[in-house]
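*** Residues and shapes ***
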Amino acid sequence: MPLWVLAAGVAVAFVVAFRVYGRSLARRMALDDARTTPAVEHADGVDFVATSRPVLLAQHFASIAAAGPVVGPIAAGVAFGWGPSLAWIVLGCIFIGAMHDFSSLVASMRHRARSIPEMVKEHLGRRAWMLSLLFIWLSLLYVIVAFTDVTARQFLFVQDGRPIGGGVATSSFLYLGVAVAMGLVLEKMKVRLWVATLVFLPLVFGAIVLGQTFPIVMPGSNPAASWGAIILIYCAIASVLPMWLLMQPRGYLGGYFLYVVLAVGVAGLLIGGFRAEYPALASLSSKDGPIYPFLFVTIACGACSGFHGLVCSGTTCKQVSKETHATAVGYGGMLLEGAVAVMALATVMMWPQGTPILSKGPSEIYATGIAHFMNRVAGVDVSWGITFGLLAFATFVYDTLDVATRLGRYLLEELLGLRGMRGRAISTALTLGMPLLYLVVAPSSVMIGGRQVPVWQVVWTIFGSSNQLLAALTLLFLAAWLSEKGQRYRFVLIPAIGMLVTTATALVLQLRNALIDPAGLSGPSGLNALLAAALLVVAGAFSLEWLRTIRGKRPTTPVEAAAP
């Protein structure tokens, strides 16, 4: 089947979903621009910054579109085939993922930009609040460990003796420097945004070329650990800087860069002449287990992500200047991530089963696919296109890593009552301490089933399970909030129950696999078993607390009248 047929069909589905279901959700939430948003009411120039819709959409998209919508669809496509993967990405995005993001964003705005745990505390009580904090903390650790490791390994990629990954490392640091310079120009010199865009956006693409001229080659016996430590140090610095200095300009530039990547992918799919060579259904099971539930937790962020709710209620809610912007930013941002996931899946679909490239890591598969799109459409050299694709992948991950760190800082500040710069430093150090210890102490790879497996792959299905389980718990809270306000809530409750059952099943199966592993519980299987059990216990306790609370409450006023 020609890929352009599938790409056109997905595009039409997403556009119709935005105009029909997205607007329906906006009416249900009674969005009103006359209502002052937290970004305007509490403006402080650091965390609360009213931001225009295009800038915020670009930043939000860059923050949520991490390695998940690339790694997950590629891994699932190779394991199960593109048919079920594509179906879950499209349907999951429209009816669950985008709805989850939009609803989380609006709920936080209606609660003065409070985080999900804070809202849980108000509506479900202190015990549910503590359980949500614990669960989110575990989920953020998975995000940081998995994404840091996959980025560090990308910087080690070598092709034909050339350290392409080292060049990408150079380009990524230059890209961050360009973002800081743009932030200073906008804030201190008051240059118009469109002028700054014309100056600094081309510099991002110039960094791609310059990076390959001066690649960074990391010495030592475990260079992945060294890169991981450097990336985490960057996250520590970025998480305490004012948002205007790095996060906003980096998200803005990164968003446009990712738009270009999307355009390249769309052009390659529509006019590149590629066909779906890989089987639509390759297998009903993978190394982890059967297609249900592992298709869903492997794709993870490509269809629905609990991490997005943290972004919406942690940073994005503090920057929305008008309520009606929530539809484009929240619902539309997730549809853009779905497009990224479809494009990533296409980099598997374009190759016949057994092609050597499909045995490589997801970043290499993705970058190679992007390179061939660029070559077919514009005649760009494949080796240069691979560099472009790898930097795009790094941009996805970088933008999410420091957001995850900032969110971890917010949570600890909230839990421990920390304030000021000293509080920011302490909460950031605590957030990154465990991932840093894990990545530095852990071996560069571990032996599972007689083969070497990188660290990110060891934790990926646990990460996917925790991520989508977090989304399920967030939807449970949203159902309680809407019920309390006299609003219909089945549109969030039904997906919540479905995802709760699916992710719990995945965790139970992973726990069982760990217990019967002949290597015993002393290695990675033991860690996976411990974490799977912890996630199940915390999620179960939260669900019971939710059920107890929602049964004891009666609706009060409609949600339209409930906003402060």
